[in-house]
Amino acid sequence: MRLTKLFPAVFLVTTALLTQTAQAAVTLMTAAPDFTLRTLSGPNLRLQEQRGKVVLINFWATWCGPCQQEMPKLNQLYEKYRSAGFVLLGVNVDEDANHASDVATKLGLKFPVLLDSEKSVSHLFDLATMPSTVILDRDGKVRYVHRGYLSGVEAEYDKKILELLK
Amino acid sequence: MNLRAGAVIAMLSVQLTGCAQWHMPEPWVKPYEREALADPIMKFSSDPLSAKHTEHVRIVREAARGATGVEGGGCGCN
Amino acid sequence: MAVTKPKTAGTGKRFRLFWKLATLLGGVFGHSQVRATDLPEDEAEAMFHYYNGGGVTAEGPALLVRKKVADNFSLSAGYYVDSVSNASIDVVTTASPYRETRDEYHVGLDYVHRDAHLTLNFSDSTEPDYIAKSTSMDIAQETFGGMTTVNVGFTRGEDQVFKHKNPQFKDFASHWMYRLGVAQILTPHWIVSLNGEAVSDEGFLSSPYRVARVFGAAVPENDPRTRSSRSVDARLVGDLGSHDAVHLELRHFWDNWDIKANNLEVGYSRYFGEDWLADVSTRFYSQTKALFYSDNAASDTLYISRNRLLSTFKDVGLGGKLTYTLKKDPAYTVKLNGEYELTQYKYSDFTDIRTGKLYSFNSNVVQLYVSATF
User: What is this structure's pTM?
Assistant: First the structure.
């Protein structure tokens, strides 16, 4: 069947896709872009004011399945290290802040949830995926970037946070 | 035909190794802008069982078949 | 005397076009970033389906379960039953009404690796005089920052055909289906897709019971033992900004039995509050007859059929659906769905021999189901 020649070509093309190299969105070892966003609880929060603490910024949305799966793990990380000088910022990109608030309550999020409905901060960080996680050291430098969420990756976050807290 | 096929394959391999200078535009819909696209009402097909039944009802009564299922859009997460 | 060129004439062109497409895609892929695509959600669906029209009633339950089994794998299984009560025009004018049940099972495996999503599906359908088994493979490849999805798929079906009260009768029907499609996100609110599918069949493609009419007399129908068809389909979905969306679909079909068909479907969905969703849709379908189809043939030909599926007809459908979200939680969501569609079929060259007029009938389709994602 002549159309069977279609498939070797498709597989060739597919293989090409599987050998791509990632492009960095936020550069490691440079200061993260500063921003100020409103929190769910009301007052504004500025990133630069978190200097001196290890910061994990997680970009999430209510319409993103993997983001929701990751939340309980992030909550656990926050509880574990907050007293050691660690802060976790959950930047939400929903159009509707009320919806973000509902879901944050249902998930029992203990860390600050920041509202980026204009997507300005997401654009600043040039996110390549939803969710995206960026970990900054005490000097505000980007030390770790993770795209997406697969179960078990929170162990990597844990290790990195511990390393940066020292 | 063989020479042409060979040239096409060579061109493909060069592009695959990233040596060719292609000026492709950057994706203009960012992953964090896909809220509307992630909603179930933006899917091409409805729920699987519903789509299957509808397809079956049609194929039994109409001579046309094919090109009815497709994937794309959505959340684009992970 | 003219020598006719064999049917292989167009394939060189098609092959070259395909390689040009592959090159272009290679260029596109050469600049995409690495992402990983997500597995389909875990879900369970239970449905009651009902069809009634033209003297036929087909109803029954259907079930579907899907579960992630590892980071990259998802398994699905489904069961579908059709209890058919057939007193259609073909049946009442040439035989007697009957009841029978068709059972269908399917199992599927989904695998994701980076931007690619592979789906394998096996299905088995059994009724007293027909067994159909099929295997399919589909690959969906995301590229261009997730804005473009390329779909390639293949299905191979193998059927066994039997005849009631005639154990001597046994035949087969084989099917090959090749499909290619591209879905492209245009804006954060609009997405378009273009799809093509080629289907080839070989074997017994008729019905062992159906009769044709030649010079007013009933003769057994005789369809060709091969059939080759193509269809192209374009779809557009758009978010209109008020928690609503519009769907458009246009398909063109043609085959080597000389049938040409077109259908257009327009749909609109809207959310009402947090819990209610309503959809309305309308569909227009029309087709022209197969070369060897005739309501009452005036000549004796090798192939002859009076199967109204192959005649010239139009159908118009109007449908509505309501969905109620019973429970919405980050952990799981449960929805209740009810759908109804009314379709009118009007034949241009198939007569109801009971009345002598051109045949037409209305059909009612109902779907009631519960869907849960978790």
Answer: 0.85
